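Severity: low
Component: inverse-folding endpoint
Summary: output formatting inconsistent between runs
Steps to reproduce: submit the following structure tokens with default settings.
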């Protein structure tokens, strides 16, 4: 069963701390707008900024030695990213669609890191969960776990639109786009999900989808 390792009450409490301590003055900061595919930062560039997604979405990825892209995380509205205590970025962040961000310097003082600790913890837990997903042997299991994750991040909605194209889904799950498409078709043919256009997903049999991830 897909369950978050960080209870919703903890997430809500963390959001309050971030709002009060890390976002001090964030509301007055200018929103920086990015177009689809525009780089926010690249691997090897100087770090030191934390980014808050105001609208849109962001993909964070690394390019492996074989040249393949591995997406590490997706960040949606309300999420923080770029949280690292290192001089240089080890990954690249790009906008998915039109995206608006606000940023704060991680060098403004210890209160910034104290306020952002819940976001750091949540990102760490999400990274652990992602490793569990891509460690699954079955492609259908990976896709099922991904759909449950997206449902959870859409407010536990059973019908939602994916922000990202299927190429992103494939690179996130360590699969090919053809395998992702076949897995979605299998789930659809079994009556577990319905597909609405290129990105619309409707989970019809939620518990069946959960059982695939046991």
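Observed output (run 2 of 3):
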């Amino acid at each position: 069963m897909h369950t978050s390792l960080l209870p919703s009450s903890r997430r809500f409490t963390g959001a309050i701390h971030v709002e009060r301590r890390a976002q001090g003055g964030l509301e007055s900061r200018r929103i920086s707008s990015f177009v689809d595919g525009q780089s926010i930062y690249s691997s090897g560039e100087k770090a030191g900024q934390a980014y808050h997604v105001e609208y849109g979405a962001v993909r964070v990825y690394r390019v492996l030695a074989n040249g393949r892209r591995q997406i590490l995380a997706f960040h949606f509205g309300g999420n923080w990213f770029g949280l690292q205590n290192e001089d240089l970025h080890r990954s690249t962040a790009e906008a998915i669609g039109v995206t608006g961000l606000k940023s704060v310097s991680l060098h403004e003082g210890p209160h910034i890191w104290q306020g952002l600790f819940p976001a750091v913890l949540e990102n760490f837990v999400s990274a652990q969960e992602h490793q569990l997903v891509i460690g699954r042997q079955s492609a259908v299991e990976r896709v099922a776990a991904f759909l449950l994750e997206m449902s959870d991040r859409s407010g536990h909605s059973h019908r939602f639109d994916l922000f990202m194209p299927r190429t992103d889904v494939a690179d996130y799950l360590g699969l090919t786009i053809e395998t992702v498409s076949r897995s979605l078709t299998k789930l659809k043919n079994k009556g577990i999900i319905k597909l609405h256009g290129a990105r619309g997903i409707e989970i019809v049999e939620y518990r069946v989808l959960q059982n695939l991830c046991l």
